[in-house]
């Protein structure tokens, strides 16, 4: 099972990026998906989650109104559209597949993890 995250890069404050996470070798169409991030010197934290059918989404307060999570089950891909980026958003972003249909903020509820993609926001 593989989750391939992509779309990271270097962007200026106020800029946008769209992260993608594609699944291979199995489908996660019946599973929640999530995005987490680890900033330098900090622990990995929940960013956003989406239910199996996209009907429920969840965001950490610091990204509400700026980030949008979505999924395309036909492509086994989940996205994170990030707008109005701030230097505090600088981190390695990880996608993960949940054990259940509905998302959780608990990392223990996610069973497969992507390799991470670096997002750097310059001031």
Provide an overview of this structure:
The chain is an all-beta fold. It has strands spanning 2-6, 9-12, 17-24, 33-38, 45-50, 57-59, 67-72, 77-82, 91-98, 110-113, 117-122. The strands form 2 sheets. Strands 2, 4, 5, 6, 9, 10 and 11 form a 7-stranded mixed β-sheet that branches. The protein is globular, with a radius of gyration of 13 Å.
List keywords for this structure.
123 residues, 0% helix, four-stranded antiparallel sheet, single chain, mainly beta, seven-stranded mixed sheet
Cα-to-Cα separation, first versus last residue: 37 Å
Whole-number mean pLDDT: 96
Secondary-structure element order, as H and E? EEEEEEEEEEE
Fraction of residues in helices?
Answer: under 10%
Number of helices: 0
Range of strand content: over 45%
What's the gyration radius in Å? 13 Å
Structural class, by secondary structure, is mainly beta
Low-confidence stretches: none
What's the topology here?
Elements: E1 2-6, E2 9-12, E3 17-24, E4 33-38, E5 45-50, E6 57-59, E7 67-72, E8 77-82, E9 91-98, E10 110-113, E11 117-122
Short description:
It is built from no helices and eleven strands. It is an all-beta fold and 123 residues long. Strands 2, 4, 5, 6, 9, 10 and 11 form a seven-stranded mixed beta sheet that branches. Strands 1-3-8-7 form a four-stranded antiparallel beta sheet, with no helix packed on it.
């Amino acid at each position: 099972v593989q989750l391939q995250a992509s779309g990271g890069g270097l962007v200026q404050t106020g800029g946008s990026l769209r992260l993608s996470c594609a699944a291979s070798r199995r489908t996660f169409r019946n599973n929640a998906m999530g995005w987490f991030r680890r900033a330098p010197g900090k622990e990995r934290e929940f960013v956003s989650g989406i239910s199996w059918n996209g009907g429920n989404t969840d965001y950490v307060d610091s990204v509400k109104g700026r980030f949008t999570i979505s999924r395309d089950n036909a492509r086994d891909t989940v996205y994170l559209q990030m707008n109005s980026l701030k230097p505090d958003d600088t981190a390695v972003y990880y996608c993960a597949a949940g054990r259940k249909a509905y998302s959780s903020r608990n990392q223990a509820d996610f069973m497969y993890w992507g390799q991470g993609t670096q997002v750097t926001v310059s001031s």
